[in-house]
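Troubleshooting entry. Yesterday's outputs looked truncated, so today I'm pasting the complete records for two proteins to confirm everything comes through intact. If either block looks cut off, that's the bug. Protein one:
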Amino acid sequence: MKVIVCGAGQVGFGIARQLASEQNDVTVIDQSPQLVHQISDTLDVRAIVGHGAHPDVLERAGASSADMLIAVTFHDEVNMIACQVAHSVFQVPTKIARIRSQSYLQPGFQDLFSQDHLPIDVIISPELEVGKAVLRRLAVPGAFDILNFADGKVSVVGVTLEEDCPIVNTPLRQLTDLFPDLKSRVVGIVRNGELFVPQSDDPMLVGDEAYFAADVRDVRRTLGIFGHEETAARRIIIVGAGNIGLHVARELEANHTGTRVKLIESDRDKAVQAADKLKRSIVLHGNGLDPELLQEAGIAETETLVTLTNNDQANILSCVVAKREGCQRTMALINNNTYAPLMRPLGIDAFINPRGATVSTVLQHVRRGRIRGLQSVHDGAAEVIEAEALETSPLVGKPLREVNLPDGILVGAVIRKEEVIIPNGDTEVEAGDRVVLFARSDQVRKVEQMFRVSLEFF
């Protein structure tokens, strides 16, 4: 597939890296010679210095034969015009744009992005995607990551194994014997920074980060088995009243009436605007790093502090100060993934990378075949994929033990009508089933081929 990516920032780099690793023909456009030089030196892609919305630049990038254009520059208007030019001049079939300004996304303006106006096929809003990720993690304390599939019937949850975890050093095959009615399965483990798909004889060790797929009704029980029985937060402090912080506060007000929310914002104008837009939340003007302000906000009685400013260092340090002042759990927004290894040593319970959330959403629309859902984990080291099984799929019609899936791919759950099945070697996938798989990034192309609409598997 031939793809043009407009924008070589963190999101554009992440998309280009993933697509190039799967042998796609990728061209990246950016106005910054430094970013273009960096991406061309690092990735197997073609990189061009230029304005992504200019027709001559798109022509040099090969837009006349492109299958898709993904516009993820820092400017909404550039992204929108790039899609318009790609459609009107080059007839590019699929256009994806990142739109950050919430003004464009208000419900009353939905007709703006249509074939008759701005022909954009998919709109990606990083703020909304990050806001959803924050709310999912607030709903399941004890997890550092949670992804939902199959219309919310299946969750893939990331959890850290602490010293008090009762199943440490237990081979995975024994978990089925210990908990025969538990609809849950470990599908991935991160150990010493390296992610792998485990075999049945592999044990889990203290310090591992484990991903398990589970029937949503068994998520809390599974967390308890892993030694995490934290209760959902009823008192929350949010640092940062920008688009993400405001979205999270509004959702908590609307859907969690028993939750008390306080916002801290250093910019006075933003604090005033947030106070006007919120009904029950308390907005404080000040610095989230100020211990006195945190004490005034009741940090010692607060169950979760979430830092959502644009400053990574401030987000990290605010979490550290909050923990010192008695806050039970902390969550930080981190744009620079080089800070990720610091989270655990600093006592930060969870972090969210906006780039990861945005890249996952974009890739969901890039995948071919019957791919119905997709999320990246561990900075793109693996993907969790929900796909519809076809008659032609090699998974269909025989026990999974006979399928001989490549190393690095594991079936986590099968959804048949309304039933969630946690598979074993005897499970047979039927045509029409939805299958949730965990796959290392280097094996994603094989998963895509399994669910492609073709006759190649007859």
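Protein two, checking that the full record survives here as well:
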Amino acid sequence: MTRSVPATPTVPTRVRTEPASFRDPANRVFHVGDEVLRGLDTGAAEHWRALTASTFFPALVAAGKVCATEEAPSALVPAGLPWAAVLRHERIPFVSHPYEWSFTMLRDAALLHTEILAAALADGFTTKDGSAYNLQWHGVQPVFIDVGSFEPVRDGEPWAGYRQFCQTVLYPLLLTAHLGVDFQPWLRAQVDGIEAEQLRPLFGGTRRLRPGVLTHLHLHGAMQQRNAAASTTDVRAQLRAAGFSRELLLSTVRGIEKLLRRLERRPTGSHWADYQRTCGYTAQDRLAKEQFVTAALTAGTRPRLVLDLGANDGRYSRLAAAYADHVVAVEQDPAVVDDLYRALRAEGQQRVLPLVLDLADPSPGGGWRGVERAGFAQRADADAVLALAVVHHLAIGRNVPLPEVVDWLAGLTARGGAVVVEFVHPDDPMAQRLLANKPEGLFPDYRRDAFEALLAARGRITERLELPSGTRTLYRAVMGG
């Protein structure tokens, strides 16, 4: 899918540097208003000009596999910036992190990365980074965003991004494919990914023989230890002397791609996978709920971004996608998100991005000074939030006080944004099931009138509907209104 950079608007001149863009001094991402810009030093500017004259790069941009990029119009760039050239990128609808992706999402992003690297190598370029963070999403289509990573390849040198690729992409995939362990908590714990020495003890004995483990974990880790005292220049000289060539590097990349295609997520049972069938809704409830959500989303200006919290199989995310530019479907079970991603991919749905996220423990800020990777709350500036069958799970299931739940929902929207929320009454069968596992009298304030008062204190309730079953009420509230 071909994408272009939007037309240049009039923007303020205040420059905001991107906290995640500081590790490469040759280029730096910053923001001016809503524009995403990248400053290049003299060497990086030369690489950019060579890149635009190549065959592979324009083709990848035209296919939507690399983010649309152009040299920024001079009127857009504030005076006095210390860059030889400034680029302008298309804006990603919602920035996510690899530990919020499902297994197949990470694998598809990895396959795009190897496809781009192979195309670059064949045309005399390489990428100096291999991080999973260099990819983002348009719906379920991955897109490579680190244009500053491309540089001319030098014969006899290995791929500089290989270690990053292993730590943020390949090792997480091996962990889930071979051991059935969800990689998300491991990847979230360290911004640089999983170290080889952390994973090697889990792959001893016959596990060493599983696809990719011996070559990319044990041998790679041993090579790192052996060359720990050697300089990068020494290592490159050794490789050149041993006959390492661009053709051998391209063969290695194709071998990684072949390995990635062999890796599959182990099927696992999940309580949430069958939730829509077992949650107790009648056909009348479902119809009334869908009609209410449709009316709520079409009551005002078309939403730019909708968050669907507790999306499960994506029923309401798909509905929202018909009335919004972009939808982020949040669900805590990695297996459920993986199934949803595969289904959306098969449907060709380009407006919905599914993410793995525990609503009671959402992604925090991470990396350098805790801001290199922004937390979910800092990224979630939505025009509308769907919180359907979520409040009781947080308030009863996770012991989050009801006022905290309402404050949190209000904080996920821009001022004037809408929250569409479902309150499950204490006598509802699902609420009763949760309460049965809690000490009696623990939630005296979990009542419909208390919830409604809290919601009205944070916004203006514009619509309400009690579902036909009589134990659930839907609200639409405009926050700050």
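Both blocks look complete. Sanity check on protein two: The first strand starts at residue 15 and ends at 17.
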